[in-house]
Design goal:
The complex is a heterodimer.
Chain A (H helix, E strand, L loop, with lengths): L1 H14 L3 H23 L10 H16 L3 H4 L1 H9 L13 H12 L2 H14 L2 H26 L2 E2 L5 E2 L2 H11 L5 H36 L3 H16 L4 H28 L4 H13 L7 H17 L5 H6 L7 H8 L1 H20 L30 H11 L3 H32 L3 H20 L2 H43 L7
Antiparallel strand pairs in A: 1-2
Helix pairs in contact in A: 2-21, 3-8, 3-21, 5-16, 6-19, 7-14, 7-17, 7-18, 8-13, 8-14, 8-16, 8-17, 8-21, 9-10, 9-21, 10-11, 10-19, 10-20, 10-21, 11-12, 11-19, 11-20, 12-17, 12-19, 17-18, 18-19, 19-20
Chain B lengths: L3 E5 L4 H17 L2 E9 L8 H32 L3 E9 L1 H11 L4 E5 L5 H17 L4 E4 L1
Parallel strand pairs in B: 1-2, 1-4, 2-3, 4-5
Helix pairs in contact in B: 3-4
Classes of the chains: A mainly alpha, B alpha/beta.
Organism (chain B): Roseinatronobacter monicus
Protein name (chain B): Nucleotide-binding universal stress UspA family protein
Family (chain B): Belongs to the universal stress protein A family.
């Protein structure tokens, strides 16, 4: 393994003098080899401008919301109580707490999607995209509830006390239990896309945004950041240097909190404009504000970014949650439904508000319509690209130091998301190929290599591929959820009944 | 009714002194001893996805080690001396858990060691003694 890493490093150093051409070459190869896949996943529904996969996710979220009777609102208070530890048996102290399960899963979703993804959404879809993003976040809570409940119910427990779970396990076992065919096939298909998603959205998108941010703020070439990131991740996931991971696990939550506080500070400083911002959001959500595709364009961008940010219906969080030992799968589902709320409804909305309120997006004073730049994107004040630079400019317009803090935050968020997704990808990989050191090492080396690829390739190719790979997981996951949701309903009714009768009791 | 002394024991020199002190008194008063080993644990700390997956395994290992390596040899020694001894391993905020255990086992006294200001663990244990001195619901003896 040392040899492979050294070879990777050597190749990059040799290529350094000709970095532009290397980046271009990597980009060209990357775009050429992934375009067909992206086109397939994002093909529009016949006769409309809506990608079928976005409709697929939203339809799923709507079905689960209705089927479980708006469970995201009914169980919201109870979910908060579970996370606060009200229902935790003190005898189980030392096991993973609901709070830890929530934050571990959040570390895979809160991050670049909230900073870069939102900026992409509003720079294509305008302020109105925010409305649809919030709606998708609220609906997505029901998808998350369904998948995480199943993740716990059908996980594998091994004699040494470790557990493996996730969609591939509930698809296989759940289908077998209900006497449905093709469970094994669908589980493998899910795993394939999970591996691709972990290399795409969980890896290359992160590396790309981190590298471009570090390059624009500090002037460090992207290939150096790519090399450093892949080196550190290599040390953690292959070298088993947990101390680095442990440091990030401590730092990232504070980064998240700090990001939220700085964002809130900007909103509070501009409190008089919050009403205007919301009226812009509502206006853009239901009328043509001059963006490409009009109102439908706003819907697509909002839904797309919400899904990419909170991953509801994708199945990834089910892998993290299924590792938690709990007697009640439903309580884990309740905890997980808070994730889209925190991730999308709170943090993404805050980012969008900061961009809107600091007036980064140019509006034609005469028509009230957005002014479009190249690529169908709305022109912005500083003429920066979509993604992190736009958020960075928005924060920078309020606090001069913010872009530097944001560059650090992006780097750390990217790192922690990569670590979490390397675990997701690994679980899908071992589901297909079996557990074993050699097989796990192979995946980890591929993972580290793709960090470098992601860092040097262009934003468009990477973002499209990572979207496509992640959304593909949802194809099989949501089909499975439709077939397995009666099982969740049975569990839910039993749980609610026992909660009411006092059989499930509060300890505090 | 016979007395129960709750002794915080983690194998450190300070906890050895507390144990010695408690055992002497127990011989005299025919008290029962409850040896408690509490592992510091917060349900609000952050774990990575991989740590979540391995947590139960780690916990089982930690409890096993606490029981067999730290508590069991001492328990056998004390029983040979003719004392009645029970052991318990718990997770949580050390001082809080000791206070709760005192209530749960109807302990009449808590005995903890104080090791001064040497090293991180000593500091931690020192603050345990301080917290107990202020918050314990039963008499608390701090052994220097």
């Amino acid at each position: 393994m040392k040899y492979s890493f050294a070879a990777l490093a050597a190749a990059s150093v040799l290529a350094a003098p000709a970095q532009a051409s290397l980046a271009e070459q990597v980009d060209a190869v990357f775009a050429a080899s992934t375009t067909w896949f992206v086109n397939l996943i994002f093909a529009n529904l016949p006769g409309t401008g809506v990608p079928w996969i976005v409709g697929w996710l939203v339809a799923g979220a709507v079905v689960f919301t209705l089927y479980f009777g708006f469970i995201q609102f009914r169980a919201f208070g109870h979910a908060l109580q579970i996370v606060r530890g009200k229902y935790s048996d003190p005898k189980d102290a030392g096991e993973v707490s609901p709070f830890q399960a929530l934050t571990a899963a959040l570390s895979g979703t809160v991050g670049l999607g909230n900073i870069a993804g939102v900026a992409v959404a509003v720079s294509i879809g305008g302020a109105g995209a925010t409305f649809w993003m919030i709606l998708a976040g609220l609906l997505g809570m029901a998808s998350k509830f369904t998948e995480c409940t199943l993740g716990v119910k059908y996980r594998n427990e091994y004699p040494d006390g470790t557990v493996s779970g996730g969609p591939m396990y509930y698809i296989k076992k759940g289908f077998a239990e209900r006497g449905l065919p093709l469970g094994g096939f669908m589980a493998v298909m899910f795993s394939i896309f999970c591996v691709l998603g972990s290399l795409g959205g969980g890896n290359m998108f992160q590396a790309n945004q981190a590298a471009s941010q570090v390059s624009s703020v500090l002037g460090v070439p992207t290939w150096i950041t790519g090399l450093v990131l892949s080196g550190i991740v290599f040390l953690v996931i292959v070298g088993g240097i947990k101390s680095i991971a442990r440091v990030t696990e401590k730092v990232v939550p504070f980064m998240g909190g700090g990001y939220f506080i700085v964002g809130m500070a900007i909103l509070i400083l501009n409190w008089d404009m919050i009403g205007w911002a919301f009226s812009e959001i509502i206006r853009g959500a239901f009328t043509d504000s001059g963006i490409v595709g009009g109102m439908v364009g706003a819907i697509i961008q909002g839904f797309r970014r919400a899904a990419f940010s909170n991953e509801a219906g994708i199945g990834s969080a089910a892998i993290a949650h299924s590792a938690v030992r709990t007697k009640e799968p439903i309580s884990e589902g309740f905890v997980s439904l808070l994730e889209p709320f925190i991730d999308t409804v709170i943090i993404c909305t805050m980012t969008a508000l900061v961009i809107i309120i600091t007036q980064q997006l140019l509006i034609d004073a005469n028509t009230g319509m957005y002014i479009l730049g190249e690529n169908g994107r709305i022109a912005n004040v500083d003429g920066v690209g979509a993604g992190v630079p736009l958020t960075s400019a928005a924060f920078g317009s309020a606090f001069g130091w913010a872009p530097y803090a944001l560059a650090l935050a992006v780097f750390l968020f990217a790192f922690s998301t990569m670590i979490t997704w390397s675990y997701y990808g690994m679980k899908a990989w071992t589901y297909m190929f079996g557990e074993g050191e050699g097989k796990e090492l192979a995946f980890k080396l591929i993972f580290c290599f793709f960090i470098f690829v992601g860092a040097v390739t262009s934003l468009d190719a990477v973002i499209d591929f990572s979207d496509a790979a992640l959304f593909s997981m949802a194809i099989f996951n949501i089909i499975a959820l439709y077939f397995l949701m009666p099982i969740v309903k049975r569990e839910l009714n039993s749980y609610l009944q026992r909660l009411k009768s006092g059989q499930i009791k509060a300890y505090k | 009714m016979s007395e129960t002394y709750l002794i915080a024991f983690d194998g450190s020199a300070a906890s050895e002194r507390a144990l010695e002190f408690g055992a002497e008194r127990a011989h005299a008063s025919k008290a029962r001893l409850l040896l408690a080993h509490v592992l510091e644990w917060s349900p609000y700390s952050f774990l990575s996805a991989e740590e979540v997956a391995e947590r139960h395994k780690r916990r089982t290992e930690e409890v096993g080690r606490a029981e067999t390596v730290i508590l069991e040899p001492v328990r056998i020694k004390l029983i040979e001396q003719g004392l009645r001894v029970e052991t318990v391993v718990r997770y949580g905020h050390v001082a809080e858990v000791l206070g709760d255990l005192a209530t749960e086992y109807s302990a009449t006294q808590i005995i903890v060691g104080r090791s001064g200001e040497k090293g991180l663990q000593a500091r931690l244990f020192g603050s345990v003694a301080g917290t107990l001195a202020q918050a314990a619901l039963v008499p608390c003896t701090i052994v220097p």
